[in-house]
Prior knowledge:
The structure holds two protein chains of two kinds. By secondary structure, chain A is an alpha/beta fold. Chain A has two domains: 4-238, 3-Layer(aba) Sandwich (Rossmann fold), CATH 3.40.50.300; 257-331 and 419-431 and 449-497, Rossmann fold (3-Layer(aba) Sandwich). Helix content of chain A is 33%, strand content 24%. Chain A has a six-stranded mixed sheet, with helices on both faces. In chain A, helix 15 links the parallel strand 19 (419-423) and strand 20 (450-454). In chain A, helix 13 crosses helix 14 (401-415). Residues 498-503 of chain A have low confidence and may be disordered. Chain B has helices at residues 5-9, 20-50, 57-82, 90-107, 112-135, 141-160, 175-178, 187-205, 207-217, 219-224, 229-255, 266-276, 288-307, 312-338, and strands spanning 165-166, 257-258. Chain B has a two-stranded antiparallel ribbon with strand order 1-2. In chain B, helix 3 (57-82) packs across helix 12 (266-276), helix 5 (112-135) packs antiparallel against helix 11 and helix 8 (187-205) crosses helix 9. Mean pLDDT of chain B is 88; it is low at 1-22. Chain A binds chain B through residues 302, 304, 323-325, 327-329, 333-334, 336, 341-349, 352, 356-357, 359-360, 363, 366-369, 371, 379, 382, 390-395, 398, 411, 415, and chain B through 2-3, 17-22, 25-26, 202, 205-208, 210-211, 213-214, 217-218, 220-228, 230, 284-285. Chain A: GO terms for molecular function: ATP binding; ATP hydrolysis activity. Chain A: It is found in: Cell membrane.
Amino acid sequence: MSTQLLKVSGISKSFPGVQALKDVQFELNRGEVLTLVGENGAGKSSLMKILSGIYSKDSGNIVLEGTEVEIDSPKAAQALGISIIHQEMNLMPHLTVAQNIYIGREPRTGLFVRARALNQRATELLTRLGIDLDPRELIENLTVAKQQMVEIAKALSFDAKVLIMDEPTSALTEAETETLFNLIEGLKASGTGIIYISHRMDELRRLSDRVTVLRDGAYIGTLDKADIDIPTIIEMMVGRHIEEGARPEARQHAHDDVVLKVEGLNTRHLLKDISFELRRGEILGFAGLMGAGRTEVARAIIGADPSEGTLIHIDGKPVKISQPSEAVAHGVGYLSEDRKLFGLLLEQDVNTNILLASLADYTNRFGFVNTEKGKRKSRDYVKALRIKTPSIHATTKNLSGGNQQKVVIAKWLARDCDILIFDEPTRGIDVGAKEEIYRLLNELVAQGKSIIMISSELPEVLRLSHRIVVMAGGRITGVLNNEDASQAKIMDYATRMGDEKEQ
Amino acid sequence: MNATPVTEKSPLRKPDGRTAGSTRSFLRAKLQQSLAFATLVVLLAFFSLANDAFFTWSNISGILLSTAVIGILALGTTFVIITGGIDLSIGTGMTLASVMTGIFLVNMQLPLVVGVLGGIATGALMGFINGFNIAVLRLPPFIATLAMMLIAQGLALVISGVRPIYFSSVQGFRDIALGTFIPGLPNAVLILFLLAAVAYLVLSKTILGRYTFAIGSNEEATRLSGVDTRKWKIMIYTVAGLFTGIAGVVIASRLNSAQPQLGAGYELQAIAAVIIGGTSLLGGRGSIMGTLIGALIMSVLINGLRIMSIQTEWQNVVVGAVILVAVFTDALRQRRAGS
């Protein structure tokens, strides 16, 4: 029996204006984990969507167990034994585990679902997979990790030969990740081929039998287990040798005025005793894994979410902030990690978005807005930040991610906030635009503004931050000066459980 | 909209940053209005040809008069719908406002101006309470205003003792709606147009208008931008309440009585007018001009069908069908623009 399970070659796919995949290939054997890596936009997701029948390919071949197959719908993929577990959960919270696993395939008598048979079937499946779950439990009562297990059980209930997992551990704790890895080992042993997408290098080394690297929609290469070496992989991913030395410019306002002091911030569910200081002209990085609570800290500070026992001093004076409008009045602006959901009015024009936070400055006492003055200001910012847009009246939705981010930044510059909290400022932005955002952040602190930058990309944190706050499990586990920080050190703090805080 | 629409379209303006893209989006915004406007013109032409009695000044002025109350309600509710909300309390709220006007003027015999302002204030107060319940207590607009609709209906009946209050004794009250400040044009129509002008200015030129669109486009992003969305939502619902109060006074004046049983169902007609006028129920998009045209389309339809001796029962069927067509056309246009 041949060990080759799946062979994909010459896959191309383009969307209007973008070549997402160019002549991509890879092979998957029985009982192995093939890890697929690449930067954002490298084409991993598009490729997986083609395999699972969500997108149709423009050209190329997919050979499953020696026969060429056409996958033209998610149903066809399932029938062939290809299952995918998406990054975002697709479970219905108000249904039970069993109902979710067999949705659309319930054992029935006429119109009636045979509940007992359904639960029976789910129990058998879960037992076989070694997952300890009650099939009658509602999804909403489960932890994220358990929900993830249900997703996996659901995927395997189709007798999957190929299982695709898209960043399955992004929301899991260490212990939960361990459980997942054990499950994966079990699946390997039973001959399932697993395509695993991950950004986490530690996982990659631990799990992978082979690693395939994509970059800009093209196949770069595959490494066998013996050759897996993190620097090599990173170099393949980014296409150049990373200068591990890129570090921030020295602070130009090197005095130690504390502009923002946060003490004893707690939230009911996650954050415990968050205290830190932000100094004038400083970029304070916030690092940590997903779910560590960094965004929650930002939202609590600006009063977007409730917090308990928090003391906030701005420029040495105690302030009370219970609404974002109060934060802005005190000169604190928050740039959300999700521009589309929390940052922009996508259907409105660039002008409206740039002026949103500072509209009162262009309004006379009768409430009338001085449109011309506002537009002049918008145009100034479009020019200063080099926002690429046909005009300030273009709909914001039509701008690229980088330019949308600049619109958000322009909005806060127009408001002239002294403290800016950037949450993942370069997420979903291409490399060139990233550099521009970095330059902008540096310019802002050079002008004496102070920045908190939350970022999941360690090179970014190291490159920009003068000091780095590391969080894990809702607590601050360490504060590092840039000179003392390294990726390894940050990861070390970021993976500590909240209670082993270093003194 | 912009202050200088003519130059906006001109390709000569391109050097200062305007390009085809902005002109297109400008035209697209205009299209829905012109679509509604074209519908109105077609309807007018059709009924004029179908029946000689239609295009006479007395009939046209009748149509305008019958548009006034629904139109005023629709103007106020346009603001609410642009925020992505809904106000179901405007119909019976209007009734309560007219009953209170009756109480102030007839029972308490207060001066005309005071009674009228009292009636309007009743509407504004209801709007304020709606806004508070929605913005601060975070009730869904549908629920909050449904409750207010029932409360207003009940209060109107209780306060009036389920009897109409007649204004025959109140000097000059009837002139509010039926006087002719401009000869041949009932004042109610004048009020509608004046209010439309005010609403247009507020929606397009003031910070309240800008925030109305902003909240409707993305409330959370607006809030995170430091806009006190609670305060502004309360103001927006209060504005809708103000218009409700004015509609209450106008309808009382027109009927020369406060009819406590009237009013239910007016809210849906007003909402229909807003939607026919191209305002999106999803929020973020809409215009006063569209609402005015939408209200006129409804009145013209009903009047025309009546003149053609079509049974009342069928009139609603036709109006319903028009709403479907209007919204479907709009959705079609949106989908095309999206792809």
